[in-house]
């Protein structure tokens, strides 16, 4: 018989048990923050695109709402562009606000040129143009229709004229007045003229246009807030049962609020884009007639459209209006929405 091997009575030492909290701490240290970040990102992405899908699912209501908002925003943008083009037009009219200096009869062309050079050194002067007696007489014969009568005169009665074009005459009236007082005190000047009343009227028209545009845009902004807020309120009412169930299982107000905020964002953003296209279409329609009218008056007016900065500001403001109005409505409504 084969001898029976006896098992060793010596026991193998068991491995120490791994504590569960140590495993949990190891996992938390490495991946808990990353997992939360990914979950947060995924939920925002889902809320962003699901809110857009809900708008697409109700095309008639969405199109009507966005059309009203786009027309309202385009009106405010149109007034803003109008003010910009009016400012461009008034900049072209600055030459009509020039100071005319009529020199004394004994002043020669050389002395007048020296005086023009001295005036040009003034920091508030943009340009100085000298019109000699001969040039003034030639222009008078050409445009007055009294050329034959002028030829009868033995001496040229017209003086030398210096046309002084100030800087920023439409922005600073006091600066123009100070410049006028300075240039008319030269000994060579016999008479100085500037149409200050025209400057006042022009400044007043530009300021009224600016303030009117600001007030009109503010009222349009309030209208956009109320329209988007009412749209979000109706959406909240239609999904009341869904919100109740979410609150019963422990969903927070911020979790429930998120898709509605994205809905407000989409409504504001799409309305801003639509308003940009409306304004662009209107500018294309008006561009040719306006430039033709400007050419008839020997002007060089080109309509200015929204710049890249203005376009980004338009989209940002319309999107923020949508988010803010949604947030304001949800802040009030969710407080009064409790599971029964």
For the structure shown, list the relevant keywords.
single chain; 340 residues; alpha+beta; Alpha-Beta Plaits; 2 domains; 10 helices; 69% helix
Task: Kindly describe this structure.
The N and C termini lie far apart (84 Å). The longest helix has 44 residues, at 253-296. The protein has two domains: 44-91 and 202-336, no CATH class; 99-193, Alpha-Beta Plaits, CATH 3.30.70. Strands 2-3-1-4 form a four-stranded antiparallel sheet. Helix 2 packs across helix 9 (253-296) and helix 9 runs antiparallel to helix 10 (308-333). The radius of gyration is 38 Å and the shape is elongated. The protein has helices spanning 20-57, 59-92, 109-120, 133-144, 147-152, 173-183, 196-238, 240-248, 253-296, 308-333, and strands at 99-103, 125-131, 161-166, 189-193. By secondary structure, it is α+β, with helices and mostly antiparallel strands. It contains ten helices and four strands, in the order ααβαβααβαβαααα.
In short:
The protein is built from 10 helices and 4 strands, in the order ααβαβααβαβαααα.
Produce the secondary structure layout.
Elements: H1 20-57, H2 59-92, E1 99-103, H3 109-120, E2 125-131, H4 133-144, H5 147-152, E3 161-166, H6 173-183, E4 189-193, H7 196-238, H8 240-248, H9 253-296, H10 308-333
Antiparallel strand pairs: 1-3, 1-4, 2-3
Helix pairs in contact: 1-9, 2-7, 2-9, 7-9, 7-10, 9-10
Computed over alpha carbons, the radius of gyration is 38 Å
Any idea what the shape is? Answer: elongated
List low-confidence stretches: 4-9, 18-30
As for the number of domains, it is 2
